């Protein structure tokens, strides 16, 4: 459990560093769209200094210039466009400054096991790591998978499944997919469950594990410190509650598993492993 906590803390630091490194550069590439709020300033022409919301059609209306199409332009491109229009009729070498006060046209939703779930602006080309970093990184309840849900150009919905282990721990860059407007990132919460290892092990007691990562019998014994000196490896007992509510007892000769003669046994939540004491 402590190891998982260290991993989560480390991943959160990675997410935050990744976000700070990439966010400012990508902001300059953002393409303006409907519902974005623009603050427009023209040096020496106060009547054009205003705040304007981009319409659903991707247009703004300014005094002197009328209706202007801004959809798909970057901040710099719009500054040049307005400067050219003003230079044609009103000013020589106009100085135009655009500030995007609110990013509304391109957003994605992050839900599930992140620090700050919610809607986030999609500035420029951003990937799942960028946006999860904006959401504060993963919590210690994060499962092993991430799902990106989106609506395709044909109107049909699709879902992309991403392994967090492969993406983050193994660094598979192909899984760090670019996002589209209105994508939904869902990182399911993985419930913490208990497995009990009792008897002749070095650290008997409860193992708190994620439901998606419940250990096998050998792994559970190892997590409990391994066999004690007087452990009977041939008579290990697994106690579990069946679907009918009755107790099931499974006797296992762990020696055969260690030698490769038998497969290891996958434990279930609330299983109780009892390692008896040898009589010799």
CATH H-level superfamily of the largest domain: Outer membrane lipoprotein wza domain like
Distance between the termini: 35 Å
Major sheet: 5 strands, mixed
Residue share in helices?
10-25%
Question: Topology as H/E string?
Answer: HEEEEHEEEHEEHEEEHEEHE
Which shape, going by the Cα principal axes?
rod-shaped
CATH class of the largest domain: Alpha Beta
Taking pLDDT < 50 over at least 5 consecutive residues as the criterion, the unreliable ranges are 5-9, 18-22
Tally of helical runs: 6
Domain count: the total is 3
Mean pLDDT: 88
- CATH fold type of the largest domain: Outer membrane lipoprotein wza fold like
Rg estimate, integer Å: 29 Å
Describe the secondary-structure layout.
Blueprint: H1 2-27, E1 37-42, E2 50-53, E3 59-62, E4 66-69, H2 75-89, E5 96-102, E6 107-112, E7 118-121, H3 128-134, E8 145-151, E9 157-163, H4 164-169, E10 184-187, E11 192-199, E12 205-210, H5 217-223, E13 236-241, E14 247-252, H6 254-258, E15 272-275
Parallel strand pairs: 6-10, 11-15
Antiparallel strand pairs: 1-2, 1-5, 3-4, 6-7, 8-9, 8-10, 11-12, 13-14, 13-15
Helix pairs in contact: 1-3
What are the salient characteristics of this protein?
Outer membrane lipoprotein wza fold like; 6 helices; alpha+beta; wza like fold; 5-stranded mixed beta sheet; 30% strand
Structure description:
The chain is 24% helix and 30% strand. The chain is an alpha+beta fold and 280 residues long. The protein folds into three domains: 37-102, wza like fold (2-Layer Sandwich); 106-187, Outer membrane lipoprotein wza domain like (Outer membrane lipoprotein wza fold like, Roll); 192-275, Outer membrane lipoprotein wza fold like. The strands form four sheets. Strands 7-6-10-8-9 form a five-stranded mixed beta sheet. The protein has a five-stranded mixed beta sheet with strand order 12-11-15-13-14, with helices on one face. Strands 2-1-5 form a three-stranded antiparallel beta sheet, covered by helices on one side. A hairpin with a 3-residue loop joins strand 3 and strand 4 (66-69). The chain is rod-shaped, with a radius of gyration of 29 Å.
